[in-house]
């Protein structure tokens, strides 16, 4: 406890909150020697949103004893500088990809390194990839994009087995890749990371012209393909969409961050885009066929006339988008299917709508491709230790004055969720990329929800913002609960700093969550 107080006292001076607050954290947090639980991961792979990524798409493991620094060479039997880190894909022999965009400055055989590729990334930063299985197809002077395949993991040169030796050089000198990548939101933690978007592909779909100031990420995933069974779509082909109705689909899709084609799929399945808007046998009404009770809960004013009316086409379409959002459509492919099933409880209906959506052009859902299916978390977890809270908050506080840039992942610019994600990575915890996914990730058992009046420094707060009242769109750290002070990447006007979350307390969603004592690679107490 004494060591924790020393760390937190220093943190209190750095952050500007009273030592009493630091003592509070130390007095309620679990001691450093408490049992660590393994981080639980959501379904899917982490997306790429920053300028850097790990050199694999698959899961991988760092080789114990083969980090950066002096090492006894296993072949030459002498102490040498190990100028990078060794890692092995799971399973071995996976493709190796460029960690960032740049220009090839070396491609060929090197003494000791075997088949080697060197990429210049500008700013006096370069990366090297050694022991590739075969000569790389890349040539000197060739431009490469982030995530472009540069070879296959191998064992050429001075090597004792299949692995990748990965180096980063700054101003011509090798530096430790682990902290470098961590600062850029791409920790070398062994977690699989999705393929990088193709070059030239916009981070946001074209039907989202601009996100509000408190948006995040620019992350998206394609609508899932239709499966089996299907029913009505087998005998009713997709019909042409009246121009006025398509305009409503497009407006609502843009506002709620979902492809208009998905709304068109529902409109086709329900009423053939308004051709059959009479009351159904179950009592549903309107273009998108709402039950009165459901519309009362989720109906919105789509045309701005001050009324939400079940038989108004604009209100019906916007209400459908609102209902899909509330039902989890932004939470990965499974979230899309779950939301459609909530709309109509039939597997064939889900596949019918996805078939129609595919025929109308498909599209990108603005959301996290991970699917985290959790509710209240695990209140029986031991609390994250005081020392780790201090380290996490110290990192976040150290970014004060940095810019807020949508989709940025450090080291000098962030959006709200990349800051919290990277701060948690400092203490060995891999969290999802977006605010909603981070909350859902806590809810699967990596933390637990606490009442607002019981918040502590280091807790995460979440509230709805740019995706409407039923979707979390912002996250930050509690700094001092007695004054509702935060550490967060607020918006482009404010950047990163110490602000207040008091303005969001009355939002439709405002939640406080606490990390458990979790770690990607738990350490035994002792």
Structure overview:
The protein has 526 residues and is an alpha+beta fold. It is built from 12 helices and 24 strands. The protein has helices spanning 2-15, 19-28, 177-183, 243-256, 260-271, 292-298, 313-326, 332-343, 347-359, 386-398, 416-425, 435-446, and strands at 37-38, 60-62, 69-72, 79-82, 85-89, 95-97, 102-110, 114-120, 125-132, 143-144, 149-152, 164-170, 173-175, 220-222, 364-366, 403-404, 413-414, 447-450, 460-464, 472-480, 485-491, 495-500, 510-515, 518-519. Strands 2, 5, 7, 8, 9, 10, 12 and 13 form an 8-stranded antiparallel beta sheet that branches. The chain has a 6-stranded antiparallel beta sheet with strand order 18-23-19-20-21-22. Strand 7 (102-110) and strand 8 (114-120) form a beta hairpin. The longest helix is centred in the first third of the chain and has 14 residues, at 2-15. Mean pLDDT is 88; it is low at 1-10 and 12-32.
